[in-house]
Write a structure and sequence with these properties.
mainly beta
């Protein structure tokens, strides 16, 4: 990630498992959903659907951030699993007034010194925004801060504003991603023959992440 002329590419390792904690201001309904997901962890990403929010960066395959200064865009490639990408617009545009909710929403970014601040809205409700299933609604306003304090380290922190799921705006801890200079994105093909059968709905009643390795 950089601001010099020409495309800048960096592959980063996984960052964060869970955004929320005991102090997170859940709405009662959201707390019920969060507790349910703790026991029934059939999240969409394990079946190859895209995941917005911080969940995009929680993957053993890594994520690739490519900045195109001439286009004033940054692309985050999510190859290991859903084979999708997310665009962050850096040209000063605002969010569209009428948006169709999507997995990644609509992201606009700007620089505050050496920190890239990304503002995203327009999410659907069909993904988990972190690995442990912190709930969200279509009202989610997600703000990410990417800071690279040194060449091999990325600090990542988010602020969540979603009155449909939380009683107040809240922020996560700061997480760390590490740059992998020789890594290439893992070609994980999402198709039926690649599924671990024990993760398919109907095979197990519940899945424990302590017993089964999942994406």
């Amino acid at each position: 990630m950089g601001r010099a002329p020409g495309a800048k590419t960096a592959t980063w390792g996984s960052c964060c498992g869970n955004l929320s904690n005991d102090k997170t201001p859940f709405q009662p309904s959201a707390k019920t959903v969060f507790a349910y997901r703790a026991d029934n962890q059939f999240e969409p990403r394990t079946r190859c659907h895209p995941s917005g929010g911080a969940r995009q960066f929680v993957t053993p395959y890594g994520s690739e951030l490519v900045e195109f200064p001439e286009l004033k865009q940054m692309i985050i490639f999510d190859i290991g699993g859903p084979h999708t990408f997310r665009t962050i617009y850096l040209d000063g545009r605002t969010h569209p007034k009428d948006m169709r909710p999507t997995f990644y929403g609509h992201s606009i970014g700007h620089w505050e010194g050496d920190t890239l601040v990304v503002d995203t809205v327009g999410f659907n409700e069909r993904f988990w925004m972190d690995r442990r299933g912190s709930p969200h609604t279509t009202q989610l306003h997600f703000i990410e801060r990417f800071t690279r304090p040194d060449h091999d380290t990325m600090k990542y922190q988010v602020t969540v504003d979603d009155p449909g799921a939380y009683t107040a705006t809240w922020s996560s801890d700061t997480f760390t991603m590490t740059w992998s200079p020789t890594a290439e994105l893992f070609e994980y093909v999402c198709q039926q023959s690649n599924y671990a059968h024990e993760l398919m709905v109907g095979t197990l009643g519940t899945v424990s992440r302590f017993e089964v390795i999942v994406p």
